[in-house]
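Sample intake — Sporulation protein SpoOM
Collected from: Aeribacillus pallidus
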Amino acid sequence: MSLFNKIFAGIGIGAAKVDTKLTSSTFYPGEEVKGIVVINGGNVEQKIDEIYLSVLTHYIKEVDDRREKRQAEIAKIQINKPFVILPNETKEIPFSFQLPLDTPITIGASKVWIHTGLDIKGAIDPKDTDYIDVVPGGLMKEVLNSINRIGFKLLQVENEAAPYRLRKRLPFIQEFEFYPTSGPFRGRLKELEIVFYSIGEHDIEMIMEIDRRARGLSGFLAEALDLDESYVRVRVSRQDVPNLDSKLINIIRQYS
């Protein structure tokens, strides 16, 4: 009977199961993620070589004029040393880790999830998936609120494969696309795109793509030649927050 149980456990029948329980489902980049991993033993004794948590997302990469969805690993955390789980035994292993500052925000089609895996030699590895909401925090939140106050509406957010010149730790960038609905840039700009390029606790660096609306013959020609776009690198620190609206207006006006 024990032999058959081992064979079945090797193909996932009657094997150990894993369930990750998070203390919250909403986090901001840089926040501490806490929870427990619950492991329920199966019908036989099994050695767990590793328990790991992976923070994952999807991004879009254009290949031969096709848009392909690819998976990216934002972080991987090992949370235990090898141990043995006995039949029908339950173990709870607490964990905590810092959500990386460059974790994308879960707006629109952007999703982030935590994948839990057990590494069991000679068996199908049990898995668990938990989706989380990642919201703007700190200076990113201040910038997004400021963009809204000066008259821009968020149209879409998408994770896209990073051009070589913009690639950093991750293979993608998250692009925020805005449209001016009121304020000083309505009728002057077609759209404003922002990539938060470097995110720290005390300052952030972002790249703005300012797409000017064609005005007159010269404006039309510039648009036709793709010369109506300007790329601006902007750094924002905590000291900028009280006057952030005017700072962003002045920068955007300079290139619009």
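Post-analysis note: The CA atoms of residues 31 and 73 lie 18 Å apart.
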